[in-house]
Amino acid sequence: MKEQTPTIHNAAKYGEIAKTVLMPGDPLRAKYIAEKFLENPRLVSDIRNIYCYTGTYQGKEVSVMASGMGAGSMSIYSYELFHFYDVDAIIRVGSAGGMHPSLKLRDVVVALASSTDNGYARHFNLPGDIAPCADYGLVSGAVDYAKAHGMSVRVGPVVSGEGFYYSDEWMKKWTDMGVLAVEMESAALYMNAMEAGKRAVALCTISDLMFNGAACTPQERQESFDDMILMALSLA
Ligand SMILES: O=P(O)(O)O[C@H]1O[C@H](CO)[C@@H](O)[C@H]1O
Ligand SMILES: O=c1cc[nH]c(=O)[nH]1
Fold first, then answer.
1. Angle CA(220)–CA(180)–CA(202) in degrees, nearest 5?
2. Rounded to the nearest whole angstrom, what is the distance from the C-alpha of residue 221 to the centroid of ligand 1?
3. Ligand 2 atom 3: residue of nearest CA
4. Which of 31, 89, 193, 235 shows the greatest Cβ crowding within 10 Å of its Cβ?
5. What is the DSSP-derived secondary structure letter of residue 70?
6. Closest by Cα among 181, 143, 177 to 160
7. Considering 46, 208, 226, 227, which one is annotated as catalytic?
């Protein structure tokens, strides 16, 4: 609904945001992606320092906008993008904590489904529990890209935590259910995409290993995710 734009959270005018949006949590990762990968990036919103840039990649218009951290923040920005800016697809480009022992730092996980301990699903007042899942076309496109580029990619379930600091027991229970990784936004993103009839996928680079304490530095989190970013851009 064009009339709803700009919003109190997004200064972009209708038409200034592309149909596909890459969405990292971190605003500085959004800036990095725009400046490194987009041609002619234009800053179209910086309300609350949640940067949104629009430019082109290989001739196609693409936007990159931060979601901030957590379901509440993701829910606001993705809702406005889908419903007010008529965005078709949001591709989260996030970091995640690796839970499955076979994962290594910087592996890319494609979040097929996203469980959560947050209450966002209650918002939809459904007569049961929703299974937040990714768009199949975006998942298969990511897998095709990985195969073509010799990247090792893992496709499977993640958990979107409401918080960040959890007990070993919490981690073990999700890991025992086959969950690969923990992050904070994919469940809310998937629910909003399902409700809006739009497309979403969360690509996550493993930035920490929950089982041995290995971790990327903040600088590495901001800048060393290029393989995942190129994968996401290939889906635009
Ligand atoms: O690196 P981003 O995309 O922000 O993702 C992860 O990092 C943040 C926590 O440090 C949460 O937003 C979590 O989902
Ligand atoms: O939510 C997150 C993201 C990265 N690493 C974690 O441990 N948790």
1. 65
2. 9
3. 96
4. 193
5. S
6. 181
7. 208
Instruction: Report which protein residue has its CA nearest ligand 1's atom 7.
Output: 95
Q: State pLDDT tens for residues 138-193.
A: 999 999 999 999 998 999 999 999 999 999 999 999 999 999 999 999 999 999 99
> Please, what are the domains in the chain?
2-235 (3.40.50.1580)
- pTM for the full predicted model: 0.97
Q: Which phi-psi region, left, alpha or beta, contains residue 89 (left: φ > 0; alpha: ψ -120 to 50)?
A: beta
What tokens appear for 62 in the block?
């693409």
Active site includes 168? no
Task: Give the position, in ligand 2's atom list, of the atom nearest the Cα of 210.
Answer: 7
For ligand 2, the distance from its centroid to the CA atom of residue 59, given in whole angstroms, is: 34
The verdict on the CB of residue 208 being under 6 Å from ligand 2 is yes
Angle at alpha carbon of residue 135, lines to 209 and 189, rounded to 5° = 60
Contacts of 172 by beta carbon, 8 Å cutoff, 6+ apart? none
